[in-house]
Design goal:
Blueprint (H helix, E strand, L loop, with lengths): L1 E14 L2 E6 L2 E7 L6 H13 L3 E2 L5 E3 L12 E6 L21 H18 L3 E3 L6 E16 L9
Parallel strand pairs: 3-6, 6-7
Antiparallel strand pairs: 1-2, 1-3, 1-8, 4-5
C-alpha cells in the first residue's frame, strides 16, 4: 500500500459541493492499494502512521504521534481519502499508467478494511467517498508531508 500523510491544521473532503468528511488538527491520509496488497499491508501501514512522531512537543521537536498530539492523551483526527493515482507509473511517457493499482473491487475492499481498522484503533476518523470525484481542502501544518509505502513482496516501509 502507498500512502501520503500530510500533517494538517484542518482538512475536509467535498463531493458535489457538500462536506463529507472533515477534521481539525491531525493527519490527512491519502491511501492507495496496489496489486498484490492484502490486509497485512493495511495493518502495517495503519500501525506505522498511528505511531509516527511528527507532531511537536512543548520544546518544538517532532516527538508526538497523532494518538498523543499534545502529551495529554488528546488525539488528532485522521481524514482517510482513497487515491489510486498514488500508484501512477510515469516512466513510459507523458500519460501515467495506473496498472500497479489494485483493481477497483480489491481497492475498495482494502480501503474499507483500512478505514474499519482505523476506527477500531483511533477515536477520530473521517473519510472521503471511494471512487467519487472529490475536492480535498487542507491547511498543511509545517508543511509536513511524508510518503509511506508498505510493499506486498516484503511488507517493508520506506
Amino acid at each position: 500500500m502507498i500512502s501520503v500523510l500530510q500533517r494538517v491544521s484542518s482538512a475536509r473532503v467535498l463531493v458535489d459541493g457538500q462536506t463529507v468528511g472533515s477534521i481539525g488538527r491531525g493527519l490527512l491520509v491519502l491511501v492507495c492499494a496496489e496489486r498484490g496488497d492484502a490486509e497485512a499491508q493495511a495493518d502495517k501501514l495503519l500501525a506505522k502512521l498511528l505511531k509516527l512522531r511528527i507532531f511537536t512537543d512543548a520544546q518544538g521537536k517532532m516527538n508526538r504521534s497523532v494518538q498523543d498530539m499534545d502529551g495529554a492523551g488528546r488525539q488528532g483526527g485522521l481524514l482517510i481519502v482513497s487515491q489510486f493515482t498514488l500508484a501512477a507509473d510515469t516512466s513510459g511517457g507523458n500519460r501515467p499508467s495506473f496498472i500497479g493499482a489494485a483493481s477497483p473491487d480489491e481497492g475498495r475492499r482494502l480501503y474499507d478494511y483500512f478505514v474499519a481498522q482505523a476506527r477500531n484503533a483511533h477515536s477520530i476518523v473521517q473519510t472521503g467517498i471511494f471512487a467519487a470525484d472529490m475536492q480535498v481542502e487542507l491547511v498543511n501544518d509545517g508543511p509536513v508531508t511524508i510518503p509511506i509505502r508498505v510493499a506486498a513482496q516484503s511488507a517493508q516501509s520506506l
